[in-house]
Amino acid sequence: MKKTLAIATLLALITTSVNARWGHHGQQGNRNSSVIEQVSTTQVATELTDEQKENLIFMYQEEKLARDVYITLGNIWNSRVFKNIQKSEQKHMNSVKYLLDNYNIPTPVLSDDIGVFENEELQALYNELIEKGSQSLQDALEVGVAIEEKDIADLEEKIEDAPSDVQRVFNNLLRGSYNHLKAFNSKL
Question: CATH fold of 44-187, please?
Answer without folding.
Answer: Ferritin (1.20.1260)
